[in-house]
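Incident log entry.

Two folding requests arrived from the same account within the same minute. Monitoring flagged them as a possible duplicate submission, but the sequences differ. Recording both here for audit purposes.

Request one:
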Amino acid sequence: MDTHVQALPDERGTRIILCSGEFDTASAPQLRSALEAARADRVRRTVVDLSLVTFADSAFISVLLHAHHRQRLVLALPPPSPVRRILSLLGLDGVLHLAPDLGTAAAPDP
């Protein structure tokens, strides 16, 4: 499966990044670039939709953790997702900000 990373236009200070496919050492830099661009553009929040990611290795997880420490990051991950399972096994589901879907993740702050 091809790997895709697409940043949508900012809306109300939030940038949404859509990801799909398999992420490993070779493809994780695509997400890193999109996250670094969001940080450089000083968006208030970055939402990454990982619902269509079918595989993620340690390089991909490292990119997410690095971004989590540098910017306000919310991950849209449905409960049966392979990435959510990996994050849970690593104990990162309690560290990273997870939402069950893109709508919830991108909802404006109350």
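Request two (distinct sequence, not a duplicate):
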Amino acid sequence: MKKLIYISIALLVVSCSSGGDSSEEKKASNPEKAVLVFPENNSECLEGQIINSQKSTVNFKWSKANSADSYDISIRNLNDQTVKLHTTTNTSLDVEIDRGTPYSWYVVSKSKKGSTTAKSDTWKFYNAGEGVTEHVPFPAEIVAPLYNETITVSNGKVTLDWDGSDVDGDIDSYEVFFGEVNPPGSFQTNLQESVLNDVSVSSGKTYYWKVKTKDGQGNVSYSDVFTFEVN
């Protein structure tokens, strides 16, 4: 009788151990996000191989991510919003891009052992051009409300929040375009901070907005049009 009890306990232990190992193995197979290295964030990229007056080859670099077998690199031209997608098993890649142009980029880590992926932070940089002494500000990036987000407000007010940056560090002001139609019209000008509080909204309506960034030299950039809905 005692022998049967010992066997039952042993089987229970083996069963529990097997389930735990499987869960840990699955977790370990999920790739971590890569840490971007170069081109550096909010900087001017002066390195690379010049092809001609319009093009150069830049070596994009990032750190190795644990459990990652390959990486998808996404490079967006912030002037015309076109995107270049590349896949590699290395942690660096030479890519031909336009000179005198602002870009954003990020890397997605992937593993052959599962469908889970991990996305890195998104960095922005300006690829140097011929004789460029000043730079257009990067297009503003949304912070809140999130794109296509449905929000609930209790006082009929919402805060528009964005992030502005410029290689020269001389952003002078922002202009917010806001309304119920797309494209939205000018709403408030000469803003010194990258936030606009107490914007009146109504329940059940969809709103559109974008941001114009102006630097001290008079250069301007426009963000994408963002949209959100109010409950």
